[in-house]
Design brief:
The complex is a heterodimer of chains A (about 600) and B (about 110). With about 600 residues, chain A is mainly alpha-helical. Chain A has helices at about 15-35, 55-75, 85-105, 110-125, 140-150, 155-180, 185-200, 210-225, 240-250, 255-275, 280-295, 305-315, 320-325, 335-340, 350-380, 385-390, 405-425, 440-460, 465, 470-480, 510-515, 520-535, 545-555, 560-570, and strands at about 230, 250, 490, 505-510, 540-545, 575-580, 585-590. The mean pLDDT of chain B is about 95. Classes of the chains: A mainly alpha (about 600), B mainly alpha (about 110). The interface of A and B includes residues 147, 258 and 262 of A.
Chain lengths: ~600, ~110
């Protein structure tokens, strides 16, 4: 029987003063962070995002938390501090890194969480209609959300607000379960979770199918490296006979057939649910399963075939209406992928460019640490091929689809747990479970504090346009109330808190989509006006501070140009101001 | 040979009681707790016990993953079959939990 590589440290015993101090430090750090974040006023007025407006006690809290964690991680000769101490510090870290906006405002960040609530609401009203949009071709997550919201009676906006903390908590439990099969060093197991949080700038943990899919993906990986793992035979070469002998020589790592069958059934359930819930995750899953299987590390050798069949069946039947107009490889190519994912994103105001560059820097730092860790493990003959395959297999998907310029973000997220695990090899002492020295612990504190600063900058770097003011949400509610069915609601850009309970009632458009590449007032304003006037049910033009900031920060327009466009629009026939508050102006456009 | 464990019986009984209570309706905070328990945690726990997982961490994460995965499967299937209502999902997940407990009970009796 395999299995989990057991932690040798006893969990009982008396509490040490160090354990108590670490927990107290965690509480103090949380209090400092909550107090500091609650002083931030919305809307945020900096193109650097939250990092520019968070007061210094926030950073003192982050520093204290890192000190407490590494003191606890260093522990004593037996290993790190007790599990309860490590877990409580990790919980605080999740609240600090992923919950900070919750202490700033009670409105969920970003437009997409609102939109996903709307999809779930629409699904519960009209059922699955694949012709509506892509979401209705992969409705799994939205079906789950509709059921949960209806049965629990929870406020959907509150659920969206807390989703990042809950999702990261789920991810960490899955990463923790997987790493139990990949390393026997308890310090490494805790450090990988800390690094996973520190490298998680991608901001994909909001209420979304991809966050749910990523959790299931991580659980699937835990099954593949755990109960479904295989022990490979010695590798003798690439000759056909040698390969055949190597393949036949594999043995199940778990010698309990019933256990393996149970794990296989769970894996099949997860594969089906992943395929029904998200467009991209099934491909990441298929590549990872295939890579692990071909390396001889997975016992059920037909699992890639089964996963591939489920994926293809979903694409050709439930998702076929979407795929008819969107061939999967339509925009494939390395050049296009680099342009879309890198070049187009490093543009905008100086502050925004700095934020984007720091995100890239954070990723490069972690990947460099992982590379150094891999070299170190290789020299010591301890390189785990599974970790390398899981870290690099997502990269294979990069040139296949541009995915709206987000593919690199997704690739770095799927690789992150295993990059973090490999990075631990260079950050911890070479000898198995050896205790880090005081100097090494100090260096780790400093390194992780700097990484935390990069993460906060990267994650919340768009706060000027993805943290909404109460007045913006109130204005949007008023517009959706007053707009007749099928009328158009036009916002400046996508960061708009709309559609959460009227997803199908109106035609939602943005100025950036209507005008595509050219947002100059002379060209764009008439285009928007024409569209609004031609709509038989009329239109509402919503100009809110956050959406305008989005266009300006990303370099699509300038503040004077945007003001000029508004000036032109409001002087046109049939356009009148119908709502106004501190951060929003709404113009009603009557039809021709 | 031994009898059915208390945990198996408790899971099955809790699934029945909480399914009924959730469908009838409870005051605000209790409704959320009962619904999450009957929709995710109980079926997750009952099905995870069938896999005979011994690792505590993997077992804990499987309770959540199987519970959420099974509820997603059931909800999605009901939407495609135009049978969806949250009450139907609650009853179905309750039935799944009870069935998993019956299978587990048979295993326990056989052991």
């Amino acid at each position: 029987m395999i299995d989990e590589l057991e932690v040798t440290r006893p969990t009982g015993g008396r509490w040490q003063r160090r354990d108590v101090l670490c927990i107290v430090a965690g509480v103090v750090a949380l209090a400092l962070v909550v107090g500091a974040a609650s002083t931030v006023s919305v809307p945020v007025n900096s193109d650097l995002g939250l990092v520019a407006v968070l007061p210094y006690p926030f950073w003192i809290g982050v520093l204290i938390l890192n000190i407490a964690f590494f003191v606890a991680l260093r522990g004593d000769a037996d290993g790190p501090a007790r599990r309860l101490v490590m877990m409580s510090l990790l919980v605080v870290f999740v609240l600090v890194l992923f919950g900070t906006p919750i202490f700033v405002t009670d409105i969920p960040r970003g437009e997409v969480a609102f939109r996903h609530l709307g999809v779930s609401d629409a699904l519960s009203q009209v059922g699955v209609d694949p012709d509506i949009d892509a979401y209705f071709n992969w409705p799994g997550f939205f079906a789950l959300l509709a059921t949960m919201l209806a049965a629990t009676g929870l406020d959907p906006v509150t659920v969206a607000l807390w989703a990042p903390v809950v999702n990261v908590g789920l991810w960490l439990t899955a990463v923790g379960a997987a790493t139990r099969f990949l390393t026997s060093d308890p310090r490494r197991r805790w450090l990988v979770l800390w690094l996973f949080c520190l490298g998680n700038w991608q901001d994909q943990d909001y209420l979304s199918p991809q966050a749910f899919g990523f959790f299931l993906y991580l659980v699937l990986i835990a099954l593949l490296v755990g109960p479904l793992a295989a022990r490979p035979a010695p590798f003798r070469g690439f000759r056909r006979a040698d390969l055949a002998e190597w393949w036949r020589g594999r043995a199940p790592a778990d010698d309990r057939p019933g256990h393996r069958v149970g794990a296989l059934v769970v894996a099949l359930l997860l594969i089906v649910v992943i395929c029904a819930s998200h467009q991209l995750t099934p491909f990441m899953m298929l590549v990872a399963i295939t890579a692990l299987t071909l390396s001889g590390r997975v016992w059920p050798s037909r699992l890639p075939l089964i996963a591939g069949i489920v994926l293809v069946l979903w694409l050709v039947y439930p998702a076929s209406p979407y795929l008819v107009g969107h061939p999967p490889l339509e925009d494939a190519g390395l050049g296009a992928a680099i342009t879309s994912n890198v070049v187009d994103r490093v543009s905008g105001t100086p502050g925004h460019v700095v934020v984007v560059q720091l995100r890239v820097l954070l990723t490069i730092v972690l990947w460099s640490l992982a590379a150094a860790g891999a070299v170190r493990d290789w020299r010591r003959g301890r390189l785990d091929l599974r970790v390398i395959l899981l870290a690099f297999s997502p990269v294979l998907i990069f040139p296949v689809q541009m995915y709206g310029g987000e593919m690199l973000i997704r690739v770095s997220l799927f690789a992150l747990p295993f990059i973090a695990l490999q990075a631990c090899s260079i950050l911890l002492p070479t000898e198995g479970s050896a205790r880090p020295s005081s100097r090494a612990t100090g260096a780790l504190v400093l390194t992780c504090f700097l990484l935390a600063a990069l993460t906060v900058t990267g994650r919340f770097g768009n706060a000027q346009y993805d943290v909404f003011a109460d007045s913006e949400v109130a204005a949007m509610d008023a517009v959706e109330e007053m707009a007749p069915p099928d009328s158009a609601i036009i916002s400046a850009a996508h960061p708009t808190p709309w559609r959460e309970d009227a997803y199908l009632d109106h035609q939602y458009r943005t100025i950036e989509d209507l005008c595509r590449q050219d947002l100059t007032p002379a060209t764009c304003a008439p285009t928007v006006y024409e569209y609004a006037r031609r709509n038989a049910q009329g239109a509402y033009l919503v100009l809110m501070k956050s959406a305008e900031a989005s266009l300006v920060i990303q370099g699509d327009t300038t503040t004077p140009d945007f003001a000029e466009m508004e000036r032109w629009l409001r002087t046109q026939e049939g356009v009148q101001l119908s709502f106004r508050n501190a951060h929003v102006r709404v113009y009603e456009v009557v039809p021709e | 040979m031994s009898g059915v464990s208390r945990l198996t019986a408790a899971l099955g009984l809790a699934a029945v009681v909480l399914s009924v209570a959730t469908v009838i309706g409870l005051p605000a905070p209790l409704q959320a707790v009962a619904a999450i328990t009957v929709l995710v945690l109980l079926p997750g726990q009952a099905l995870t016990r069938l896999t005979q997982v011994t690792d505590v961490a993997l077992g804990a994460v499987l309770v959540l993953a199987i519970g959420l995965g099974a509820l997603t499967f059931v909800s999605t299937a009901m939407f495609y079959l135009a049978l969806w209502s949250w009450q139907a999902c609650v009853v179905t997940m309750g039935v799944i939990t009870v069935l998993a407990c019956i299978v587990r009970a048979r295993q326990e009796v056989a052991w």
